[in-house]
Description:
Layout: E1 6-11, H1 15-26, E2 31-35, H2 41-46, H3 48-66, H4 81-105, E3 108-112, E4 115-119, E5 122-125, E6 128-137, E7 141-143, H5 157-161, E8 169-173, H6 177-189, E9 192-196, H7 208-220, E10 224-226, E11 231-237, E12 240-245, E13 250-253, E14 255-258, E15 262-264, H8 271-274, E16 298-300, H9 311-326, E17 340-342, E18 348-352, H10 355-360, E19 365-372, H11 375-380, E20 386-393, E21 399-405, H12 409-421, H13 426-430
Parallel strand pairs: 1-2, 1-6, 2-3, 6-16, 8-9, 8-14, 9-10
Antiparallel strand pairs: 4-5, 5-6, 7-15, 11-12, 12-13, 17-18, 18-21, 19-20, 20-21
Helix pairs in contact: 1-9, 3-4, 3-6
Amino acid sequence: MSEFDYDLITIGAGSGGVAASRRAALHGARVAICEGSRVGGTCVIRGCVPKKILMYASQFGEALEDAPAYGWQFGEPRFDLATLVAAKNAETDRLEGIYRRMLADGNVTLIEGWARLVDAHTVEVGGRQLTAGRVLIASGGAVSRPPIEGIELALDSDQLLDLAAQPGHLLVLGAGYIAVEFAGIFRGFGSRVTLAFRGERPIRGFDEDLRVRLADGMAARGIDVRPGFEPVRIERRGSGFAAIDGDGNEIVADAILAALGRHPNTAGLGLEALGVRTRAKGGAIEVDRYSRTSVDGIYAVGDVTDRAALTPVAIAEGRAFADTEFGGLDVAVDHALIATAVFSQPQIATIGLSEQDALSAGHDCQVFEAGFRPMKNTISGREERAYMKVVVDRPSDRVLGAHMIGPDAAEIMQTLAIAITMGARKADLDRTLAVHPTTAEEFVLLRTPRD
Length: 451
């Protein structure tokens, strides 16, 4: 008999925690997973999935606007946010049920309640103490609330997903994934939208050519883009709210979304008492390439480690942990090449180094790019353009990065990411025959480097 109740206890039933637990059980481990909220975590319940459902809904308005040019005739369209939110909730409920069944079918014991670490092998949840040979922390991230006076008057992204009454004017504070995606969604619903942020351009960390085009594209869709705005106070203003910066400038709206970042969800876990090292800024748990923390027997994966706060990364880290610790394998996730997309409107996607990062890393670069109006927009009369960019290391011809803004950017980048992950060279793209007529074919038709 083992001296422990379980071989593994996982804290957090989100994407990373569920993936790790199921894989460990598949290897024969006795596994329990603790969850104090809903099974499925950020992505399924209050992130990727519901947000993309809203994004799809917001695009129907544009399609209806374009349809008459293609011969379609409709009556006056009307959008009802409450109907959409009800449908979204039904879908997340369905997905949560699937996650619960996956755990049960995978021989993983679900323990509902908030967990905290007592020691390296003991977890307390719901007044019970359970022991395990290994503990995996997969508690994800949480919405950040910066010290802005009156910040409690603003909605966060979780609350906005359940908003049943559409605001006439939505002010979005921030310029990251969540901010630009919700700005596009509510503009698509017909709301007036202002996007205000302290920097010069949205989506920090992406290639500069994408950032410039995203700001321009959002403005062309009717979003009021306000760079250089850093609020210090939020207050009620009649039936609405006002955000005020340090110079006294204010933006008044019916509702305010504070999309000002997320942080690793480590509060209440008892890490400090156990000596689990975390970063001074942000509180992310420090781990090595095998997801081991500074305390033997305690591991961490996903957003709580802040290596790359993306669902597929958390899943890969969780599976790698399980394969290494319970499968007798030696598996570590390579974080060097991660394809990602922002479901903004227009949409952007990328993999590898930006031009700026490639130059900073000392590469002798060639840049290939193309900009054009997608065929679909020619009949409808829309002026919005797509843009593609490939960054190449000149001496080796290896593709260092690929970047796109425009329709289906995420779907296109997923396939291109396979080639780049395999070490594609520019010559490999050049000898690939194009699928015509498509937007994606432009990536294999780039021939002349930018001066």
